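Pipeline run #58 for the internal structure catalog. This entry was flagged by the ingest filter as a single-chain record with no existing model, so it goes straight to prediction. Upstream metadata was stripped on purpose; only the residue string is passed forward. Reviewer on rotation: M.T. Logging verbosity set to normal.
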Amino acid sequence: MTPERLLHVGCVLALLCGNFVAAQEVGTVPRESTVPRKFLANTQLLTERRPLDEVMVAGIDRFALRAINQASEQRRKFSVQAGDVNKSLDASRRDFAKRIGVVEKRREARGIQFDANTEQNAVVAETDEVQVLAVRWKVLDGLDARGLLLRPKKGDVVARVVAIPDADWTPEMICGVVPPGDALGGAVDTSSAKAQGATINANASGPEYALNFALMGCEVLVPTLISRGYEFSRNDEIGRSTNLSHREFIYRQAFEMGRHVIGYEVQKVLAAIDQFELRNETHDVPCVVAGVSEGGLLALYSAALDPRIDAAIVSGYFDQRENLWQEPIYRNVWGLLNQHGDAELAAMIAPRKLFIQIAPKIPEARKAASVGRNVAAPGVIKTPVVESVLAEVRRARELLPEQVAENSIRVIGKSGEGEPGLESGLVQSCIQEICSTERVALDKGQDLKERRKNFSDASRQQQQVRQMVAFTQQLVRKSHRVRDARFGKLDRSSAESFVRSADVERDRVHRELFGKLPTPTVDPTPRSRLVLENEQMLGYEVTLNVYEDVIAAGILLLPRDLKPTEKRPVVVCQHGLEGLPMDTISGPESRGYRAYKSFAAELCRRGFVVYAPQNPYRGGDKFRTLQRKSNPIGLSLFSYIIPQHLVTLRWLSELEYVDAERIGFYGLSYGGKTAVRVPPMLPKTKEEPGYCLSICSADFNEWVAKNASVDAKFSYLWTGEYEIFEWNMGHVANYAELSMLMTPRPFMVERGHDDGVGVDEWVAWEYAKVRRHYNKLGLGDLTEIEFFDGPHTINGRATYRFLHHHLSWPESR
């Protein structure tokens, strides 16, 4: 148990037993002339025995899980009216497309290209019944799809199918292409997927559903998916490699830009449909998408978005999504569950055909491999439970008119032992229904033997990964233009005009970037207890109710020389990642001393009333999964932190010794993140108190690049903070824009030259925008930055002067 935990438990037990001994800083003696109260006036005695950070995180966890279930109930109000299905879903499709990052216009379809050169023919394999070709097709500028095209040799084409493999299967696997001399007949290279903990089918009779479609007379395109391997999640130029799967590697950087590995791959599927539409100009047949596991996700999502798709076959994916947070993080979609559970997506496909296979089993991703920098987020993929699948199917049918549901949604197959994928019998029955044909599948005949002599699936995978990385990095580089245009619309004719116009943008940023909860209305019921006493100050641990199960907590420090009728300014001192309020207070014995330098205690000694809040970013995966649980309902950690601070400000403002007009904020590291996210969202208004200034220490940065860049050693692509990424921040507001929302309140940055969270040049670049903004409004004296020789730490020189000056409190009394 840490010293902070021992201190906490000792104080609580002593207080509850009636034999309280005040906690002391080393080298100080309690003032015997004053007997402090055991709890603050107008509060109840705090009797909670558990550490308050644990209480807080557990409470938010219950709140988030309840909110997920409430979102599910809200989705039940969704319905599709007969006769107007597609028109009524236009808005839903637009919303869904934006959430998965399908926003760029695809390149015009001008034909599928052979993936060949002077040394290598495009023909991959061939029998009397089918020909397999290596192909590519254009998707976006700089992004194309690569895979296989299967052409039936006998009879007319009855349908055109995009057959989508699981992420751990190559196109060759589902086409039945057997490498020369390979008795197993599986993927060319599956070692990376195996290292990721996936179960891979490598039998010759494996998931050959693309071939099964071709034997039914379908023309079939098979895209290469970004795999769960990790060998290309690296940048050797800067000496960085990770155990992030390729999918998570793309996800992290794309999520920050409002894009998604899912969205990129849906675009590849829809680009295949574009090609099919071009081919349908001469021979019009149904367009179908079919996939297993990750491929099933893409088939479901693509068909929900695009009415040109006549039917979708989804195997091993369709399910209830309330436990989405337990799946791999690369399936995390911001705000998905507010409108788009699997049932709602099924309803978006109606009245077109949707075949949902009860899969015998699917490739199961269990855990990330231990290799390189072990920073991958936890998450598992399991074969959906039959009862859960059928429950979601029932819900989908309830959303539709009865006849539409009956004609549109089919459940096929049965659960049991067997190979994953779509069996030939299921493929045949689906195609017969979709195409209204009696055509029977041809016999497979001889094996499809790989003809390419030097083909490398690894090289193809590397190229596909690099294209997505390059596309996303270009978005990172260009995103400042979007932010400039967005904030350039605000009225800068005067400081007053800017403040008025910024109110709308503040609310928009709050909703889009952090997720906004309703304003708290519950009784805060303040509770407190004395936990610190010395000659100069008293410290009280405090809790306040925010929402059901959600509390705010912290330690209030009161100078011992407070006069009965005096009102003083307050500094809220925020700890960093995995911190406690006492870290900002305690002396050299504290593990946090080197970074925090007891800055909360020092400011109290200078005469300020000080409050050190507990923020919920503590507990490793326990708090990080709060982000995972919140994101699918359009919320984040700061959705809770902002109202926690609002309730705290309300309480502080009502204390008789606090000047509500002078409450400032000073945060280090993750507390610095708080400094650019919370005070800008909480200006003082007639209705609510707010922060009158903010200081960001050891965190201010070109934050979008800090999160998404593959070229910086200190990027969060290479670390374990998988909760740090914020949806579409690159196009909403970076640190400069967030800081502008502090206007006209004072704002300061504290930066150590040797702080490894970034480099001076990035910090100066981003802060220069803030300085220019304040100067243009004639407020240049309200902002400043201090660079100092030192590491990731409080410096406490220029920042202390800044606090004394702008909070109108003398440095020496």
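catalog note: Confidence is low (pLDDT under 50) at residues 6-33, 182-205.
catalog note: The first helix runs from residue 3 to 16.
status: ready for reviewer M.T.
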